[in-house]
């Protein structure tokens, strides 16, 4: 398509302006994280200072444990359920699937109140399980939907051929379909990791008094309540909290955006 | 069930499916579906979370729409929808159309950059924007520099501007997502459509309305669904920036769920707000999907 030079220049101006708009708040944080003030020595040592004072070591540990657990369990469960919903027919299949589909739209705000009181009644609040299991449930709803679409579109003839060779449903899934589903699985893992890492309401409500179980975003919110005058350490803490997901995203971005868009417009 | 049925072609009834579905469904039912039903149940009770509950029927629902503060929170959610969904859609359409037409270089870099806000934790985003909006923050510095000193203020503490200020954070957060979605949609439009439009003498604007816009209706529906839900669920942003203030100018339903249940001990009322919020999300998602489908057909 032929475009005039002036239009081209204007396009780049719009492009750069929007990129700056998108990046500016993030750059603010990174720049501030390296500056010095009353509590902050400045430079990279701000990070170790924030790490110690803000107890980010403990918060990151919880976040890593919760995210790993949620990603691992929900991915395996989603593979199994997505496979059955996508390739098998059984009575009540559609009803069960639509029930799970509700989980994608269901806001955590609606379920967190009854969950808190039920889990409190059986002594599970302030435990790892109270943070992890509700998030497994929400991730499984999305994961099942995501992988069902993939397994449905995966070639019938491949399954047919494998079955003629005498493979069981279990072997067809793990040895034939899962290797083919790798791009869809990578996108699912990144999305689930990102959502779990960034989740705020569930850890806030479910861990009212166990400080050692605070996740990174929750830890940052408490840290931000304490540091109102100096911004450098708060910014350093914010950088620490955001970094794992940002690094993962930058590392896999091409693949990740493509996979996400493909899934968003499928079905 | 006989062996031959189990080994039949795909599409045959396979009872083994239940075994595959069971683990996922059990966790989902216990930690999402059951709590939702329980929320509906609790919404008919007046309960403080400790002592005996009293049956109030639809009383809590009457409160949600009768209480001035709670009613206002739903109004604020509507305003935020304009900032989280409508504005990003307009920004995204213009940007994506421009980029799509021009085939500029550096597109993948641009895509990576504008999508970045989506992956940063909302708590971190709130910390950054609180700084930008603060009395000595960048926004006020810019205003002073261009001689608009009278406009400077603590934006998040301002009765008139706090809600739009929170809304702009949403616009910032969602615009990149919408742009990337629309760009992907536009890249799938067959080139012949544009050539045909050009032969008919269409300029860039008519080309946009005749070819580009109708071709990305599916993507628009997806983008609106995602951003509207995000607007309705925005809890952490409010919790971290304004806590619903000043007064209750920026409170939203999701924040009221938290406040009513865990700060004021109105568990039944909090459940009711959660149920109403869920119902609104279901209805809107369903409507957008239906409209999207009908237009695409």
Automatic annotation (TrEMBL), chain A:
PROSITE patterns: ABC_TM1 (PS50928). Belongs to the binding-protein-dependent transport system permease family. Residues 60-252 form the ABC transmembrane type-1 domain. The chain crosses the membrane at residues 12-34, 64-83, 95-117, 129-151, 172-197, 231-252. GO terms for biological process: transmembrane transport. GO terms for cellular component: plasma membrane. Keywords: Cell membrane, Membrane, Transmembrane, Transmembrane helix, Transport. This is Sugar ABC transporter permease. It is found in: Cell membrane. It comes from Luteipulveratus mongoliensis. It is a multi-pass membrane protein. PANTHER family: ABC TRANSPORTER PERMEASE PROTEIN MG189-RELATED, ABC TRANSPORTER PERMEASE PROTEIN MG189-RELATED-RELATED. Pfam families: BPD_transp_1.
UniProtKB/TrEMBL annotation, chain B:
It comes from the Bacteria. Keywords: Cell membrane, Membrane, Transmembrane, Transmembrane helix, Transport. GO terms for cellular component: plasma membrane. The keyword Transit peptide does not apply. Residues 74-288 form the ABC transmembrane type-1 domain. It is a multi-pass membrane protein. Pfam families: BPD_transp_1. The keyword Cell membrane applies. CDD domains: TM_PBP2. GO terms for biological process: transmembrane transport. Its main location: membrane. The chain crosses the membrane at residues 16-37, 74-97, 109-129, 161-184, 267-288. PROSITE patterns: ABC_TM1. It is found in: Cell membrane. Belongs to the binding-protein-dependent transport system permease family. This is Sugar ABC transporter permease.
């Amino acid at each position: 398509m032929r475009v005039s030079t002036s239009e081209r220049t204007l396009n780049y101006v719009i492009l750069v302006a929007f990129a700056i708009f998108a990046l500016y708040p993030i750059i603010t944080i990174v720049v501030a994280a390296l500056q010095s003030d009353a509590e902050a020595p400045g430079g990279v040592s701000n990070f170790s200072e924030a790490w110690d004072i803000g107890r980010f070591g403990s918060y990151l540990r919880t976040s890593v444990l919760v995210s790993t657990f949620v990603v691992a369990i929900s991915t395996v469960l989603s593979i199994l359920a997505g496979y059955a919903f996508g390739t098998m027919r059984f009575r009540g299949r559609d009803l069960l699937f639509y029930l799970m589909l509700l989980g994608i739209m269901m806001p955590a705000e609606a379920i967190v109140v009854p969950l808190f009181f039920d889990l409190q009644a059986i002594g599970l609040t302030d435990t790892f399980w109270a943070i992890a299991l509700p998030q497994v449930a929400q991730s499984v709803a999305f994961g099942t939907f995501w992988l069902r679409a993939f397994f449905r579109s995966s070639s019938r003839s491949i399954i047919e051929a494998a079955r003629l060779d005498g493979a069981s449903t279990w072997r067809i899934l793990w040895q034939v379909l899962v290797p083919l589903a790798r791009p869809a699985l990578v996108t699912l893992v990144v999305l689930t990791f990102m959502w779990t890492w960034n989740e705020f309401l569930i850890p806030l409500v479910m861990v009212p008094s166990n400080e050692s179980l605070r996740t990174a975003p929750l830890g940052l919110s408490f840290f931000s309540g304490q540091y109102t005058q100096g911004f450098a350490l708060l910014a350093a803490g914010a950088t620490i909290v955001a970094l794992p997901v940002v690094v993962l995203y930058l590392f896999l971005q091409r693949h990740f955006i493509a996979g996400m868009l493909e899934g968003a417009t499928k079905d | 069930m006989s062996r031959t049925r189990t080994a039949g072609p795909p599409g045959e009834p396979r009872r083994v499916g239940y075994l595959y579905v069971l683990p996922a469904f059990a966790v989902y039912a216990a930690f999402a579906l059951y709590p939702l039903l329980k929320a509906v149940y609790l919404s008919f009770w007046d309960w403080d979370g400790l002592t005996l509950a009293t049956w109030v029927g639809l009383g809590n629902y009457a409160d949600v729409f009768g209480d001035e503060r709670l009613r206002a929170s739903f109004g604020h959610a509507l305003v935020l929808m304009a900032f989280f969904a409508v504005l990003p859609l307009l920004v995204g359409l213009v940007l994506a159309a421009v980029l799509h037409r021009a085939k500029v270089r550096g597109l993948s870099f641009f895509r990576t950059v504008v999508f970045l806000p989506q992956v940063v934790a909302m708590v971190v985003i709130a910390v950054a924007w609180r700084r930008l909006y603060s009395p000595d923050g960048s926004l006020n510095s810019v205003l002073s520099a261009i001689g608009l000193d009278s406009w400077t203020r603590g934006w998040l503490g301002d009765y008139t501007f706090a809600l739009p200020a929170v809304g702009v954070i949403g616009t910032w957060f969602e615009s990149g997502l919408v742009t990337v979605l629309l760009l992907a949609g536009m890249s799938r439009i067959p080139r012949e459509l544009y050539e045909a439009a050009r032969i008919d003498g269409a300029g860039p604007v008519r080309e946009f309305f005749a070819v580009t816009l109708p071709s990305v209706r599916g993507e628009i529906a997806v983008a609106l669904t995602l951003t509207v839900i995000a607007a309705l669920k925005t809890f952490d942003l409010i919790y971290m920036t304004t806590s619903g203030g000043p007064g209750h100018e920026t409170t939203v339903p999701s924040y009221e769920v938290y406040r009513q249940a865990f700060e004021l001990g109105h568990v039944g009322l909090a459940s009711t707000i959660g149920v109403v919020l869920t119902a609104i999300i279901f209805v809107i998602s369903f409507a957008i999907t239906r409209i999207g489908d009908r237009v695409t057909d």
